[in-house]
Every structure is written in C-alpha cells, then in structure tokens.
Write a structure and sequence with these properties.
About 75% of the residues lie in helices and about 0% in strands. It contains five helices and no strands. The radius of gyration is 12 Å and the shape is globular. The chain has one domain (about 5-70). It is mainly alpha-helical and about 70 residues long. The structure holds zinc ion. Zinc ion binds next to helix 2 and helix 5.
Amino acid sequence: MTENEALGRLLGADGPDIGCDACFEELDRYVELELAGADVEAILPGMRGHLAGCPACADEHASLVALLRERR
Ligand SMILES: [Zn+2]
C-alpha cells in the first residue's frame, strides 16, 4: 500500500471523508473561511481530512490559498 493509502486509512478512522466532488464544490468557501480564521472543521466537517488524504485536492487548495492571499 502506498503512503497516501496508509494516511487515508488513518484519517478514515478519525472522521468522515467528504470525497473529491463535495470537496471541490466547497473549496472556494472553505479557503475563504479558513483565511478569515473561521472554525472550518465545524462549518465544513470532513474537508480538512479529505485535503490531508487527497493530493489532488490539496494541490487545488494550496493554489486557491495562494491566489486569495495575493488579492488581499
Ligand atoms: Zn479529493
């Protein structure tokens, strides 16, 4: 098993994984809340766990954060 699968299993025991589709839909809102200092895990449960276990969404998240930070 790969490192990511191992990580996914670890996180799976920890909480829900919302999956890529839902993650993608909420990513804009998630990043804005995150940068605003909101409790994102309470507002969008499972997002942080998914981002930690999914390299594709983590990439997207990182570029959105960079983009929004630049705009401020
Ligand atoms: Zn994903």
